[in-house]
């Protein structure tokens, strides 16, 4: 919602300022400039990116408009789910977790947590790490290394879409200049025309520069930053799961295990200890 509000403010204020200068809006409608800038930018993206990065980028842009679904309440739910799983392991041993991690969709503990079951990155990370613990014989520090490897790979993959969008934003002023230069080339062919006609032609050419700069710094650049912030959210969840599962691997009490997970969360997503304890007692 904030993204849409931001776009309305950006375009609304630019249009309002232009209108206050008594600028004619008709001159801003230059489809040829849109084709040059938009087409060249999309073509550059195809040259720059492999297919899977383009797919991830499109999903990322879609996620920008959907906004963040990660809240303190959803993280509290994940912590309670971790508590229930670790409590099962405490009473039944690690093998008691096997049916839950082999088929999480049918698990009576995991399946009831929408925030976890619909996030395949975090779900896969949790289940695979517990499977390693079930196998046995793997020291805690090596389990930590496996977790760190997965998190490093995910962080690298998550960095690509916003990095591509940032590069596209950086290229837009240049694409706008390309469109403007082409317009000036056409104008120079009619330099012997009426001054008013030449002025209109130059104005039309400058729309390309205007559009490139506006889209770069008012739209794509902020969207790239938003996408990067959203990509951190999965890392927050992974870090929380990592801390709790490693605490379980050390043999700590289930409530202490999820306390490790709670401490791994940033402040805006971190429930209080009392909230966690109360939820674990009620839910577990």
Your description of this structure?
This protein has helices spanning 2-20, 31-48, 51-66, 72-92, 98-102, 114-117, 120-135, 140-188, 195-249, 254-263, 273-283. Helix 4 (72-92) packs parallel to helix 9 and helix 4 (72-92) packs across helix 11. With 284 residues, the protein is mainly α. The longest helix is centred in the last third of the chain and has 55 residues, at 195-249.
Outline of the structure:
The protein has 284 residues and is an all-alpha fold.
Average pLDDT value?
Answer: 91
Oligomeric category? single chain
Largest sheet, in brief, is: none
Q: Strand content of the residues, in percent?
A: under 5%
Helix content: over 70%
Number of helices: 11
Order of helices and strands: HHHHHHHHHHH
Low-pLDDT stretches? none
Distance between the termini: 35 Å
Radius of gyration: 26 Å
Write down the overall geometry. elongated
Number of domains: 2
Beta strands, count = 0
Structural class: mainly alpha
């Amino acid at each position: 919602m904030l993204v849409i509000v931001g776009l309305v403010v950006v375009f609304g204020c630019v249009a309002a300022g232009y209108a206050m200068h008594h600028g004619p809006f008709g001159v801003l409608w230059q489809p040829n400039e849109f084709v040059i800038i938009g087409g060249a930018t999309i073509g550059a993206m195809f040259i720059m990116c492999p297919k899977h990065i383009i797919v991830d980028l499109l999903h990322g842009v879609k996620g920008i408009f959907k906004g963040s679904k990660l809240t303190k309440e959803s993280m509290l739910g994940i912590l309670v789910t971790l508590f229930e799983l670790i409590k099962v392991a405490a009473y039944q041993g690690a093998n008691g977790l096997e049916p839950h991690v082999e088929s999480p969709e049918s698990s009576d503990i995991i399946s009831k947590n929408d925030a976890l079951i619909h996030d395949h990155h975090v779900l896969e990370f949790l289940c695979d790490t517990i499977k390693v613990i079930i196998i046995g014989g793997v020291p805690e520090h090596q389990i930590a290394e496996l977790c760190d490897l997965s998190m490093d790979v995910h962080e690298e993959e998550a960095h690509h879409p916003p990095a591509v969008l940032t590069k596209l934003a950086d290229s837009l002023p240049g694409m706008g200049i390309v469109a403007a230069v082409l317009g000036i080339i056409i104008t120079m062919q009619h330099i012997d025309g009426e001054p008013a006609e030449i002025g209109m032609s130059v104005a039309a050419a400058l729309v390309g520069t205007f559009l490139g700069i506006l889209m770069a710094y008012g739209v794509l650049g902020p969207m790239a930053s938003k996408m990067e912030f959203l990509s951190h959210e999965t890392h927050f969840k992974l870090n929380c799961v990592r801390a709790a599962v490693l605490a379980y691997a050390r043999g700590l009490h289930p409530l202490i295990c999820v306390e490790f997970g709670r401490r791994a969360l940033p402040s805006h997503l971190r429930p209080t200890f009392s909230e966690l304890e109360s939820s674990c007692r009620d839910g577990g």
